[in-house]
Write a structure and sequence with these properties.
Pfam family, one: Peptidase_S11
Structural class: alpha+beta
Protein name: D-alanyl-D-alanine carboxypeptidase (Penicillin-binding protein 5/6)
Shape: globular
Family: Belongs to the peptidase S11 family.
Order of helices and strands: HEEHEEHHHHHEEHEEEHE
CATH topology: Beta-lactamase
CATH superfamily: DD-peptidase/beta-lactamase superfamily
Organism: Streptomyces indicus
Number of strands: 10
GO molecular function: serine-type D-Ala-D-Ala carboxypeptidase activity
CATH architecture: 3-Layer(aba) Sandwich
Distance between the termini: 41 Å
Helix content: 25-40%
Number of helices: 9
Length: 305
């Protein structure tokens, strides 16, 4: 018996195991079963480059478009940052900010107003991260966590542990960076995982909060327009948040979740080409509406790990 003959069964088994461990979804999903096509609601017409809508409890992916395409995530990547760093510090821990804490922040970054020399509680920094998408708050938390590159490595390890295989972190705040990417599937996974954490939910679902300044506490509003009910958009019924984002490379991005009738639907929309900045929220709203109507009436196209 030759070496080639001996290795062939082992190689086949290895290839089968690799395929089984790699979650894949079709680029464009037909979500209706043959006997249910008339009853199943029609998917909305969307312009987003990629999107996913899923049932949060079961993890069933109800429909998707280019779910694994690697795209710039913008600040939706802060969900993975929170999953990685949030458990590491008590909310009441205080930190005095130095110039090194804010070194390297990108030009034009969104900020909540962290100032050098100021002392902040960890919960203040998380509120600035979730509500105002403050890259300055992320910088401070990352430095407390061991540094920018160390935090990026931890986030990449966390992504792999969760089963997210199309995410690579270079800049933990989601700021555009070379070789940084995620996917609608992975971001939906991060959003769903965050819903398991009480602190994560308390921040991501807050329409407004307060942030300390030298002149006192100032009110800050959530950048998620479906949550805040701002810029001509109504607050979505049962909205839970999760995170919105924008950069030049990524365009507008959002991960949203909503609860209705004891069920939670989570959806991710990446870079729609219509409707300017409100377009991403209108398409997210349409996916949530469809998800609630379709749950139990369509055949899932995959499952979040």
């Amino acid at each position: 018996m030759t070496v080639r003959t001996l290795l062939k069964p082992a190689l086949c088994a290895l290839l089968a195991l690799t395929a089984a461990l790699t979650p894949t979804l079709p680029a464009q999903a037909d979500t209706s079963t043959p006997g249910d096509r008339q009853a199943a609601p029609r998917l909305p017409r969307l312009s987003a480059r990629a999107w996913v809508v899923a049932d949060a409890e079961s993890g069933q992916v109800l429909a998707a478009h280019r779910p694994h395409q690697r795209l710039a995530p913008a600040s939706t990547l802060k969900t993975l940052f929170a999953l990685t760093v949030l458990p590491r510090f008590d909310s009441g821990t205080r930190h005095r900010v130095t110039a090194k804490d804010l070194a390297g922040i990108g030009a034009g970054s969104s900020r909540v107003g962290v100032r050098i020399g100021g002392t902040y509680r960890v919960e203040d920094l998380w509120r600035g991260t979730f509500l105002r998408s403050g890259n300055d708050a992320v910088r401070v938390l990352a430095r407390m966590n061991g540094g920018w590159r160390h935090t990026a490595r931890q986030m990449n390890a966390k992504a792999r542990a969760l089963g997210a295989r199309n995410t690579h972190v270079v800049s933990p705040d989601g700021y555009d960076a070379k070789r940084q990417f995620s996917s609608a599937y992975d971001l939906t996974l991060f959003g769903r995982e965050g819903l398991r954490d009480r602190r994560f939910v308390s921040y991501c679902r807050s329409p407004y909060g307060y942030f300390p300044t030298p002149k006192g506490w100032v009110r800050i509003e959530n950048t998620n327009r479906l949550l805040a009910g701002s810029h001509g958009l109504r607050r979505y019924p049962g909205i839970v948040g999760i995170k919105s984002g924008y950069t030049t490379k990524a365009g507008n991005t959002v991960i949203v979740a909503a609860q209705r009738g004891g069920r939670t639907i989570v959806a991710t929309v990446l870079n729609p080409t219509s409707g300017a900045r409100n377009g991403v929220y209108k398409e997210a709203r349409a996916l949530l509406d469809w998800g609630f109507a379709a749950r139990g009436r369509v055949k899932p196209v995959g499952r979040l790990p």
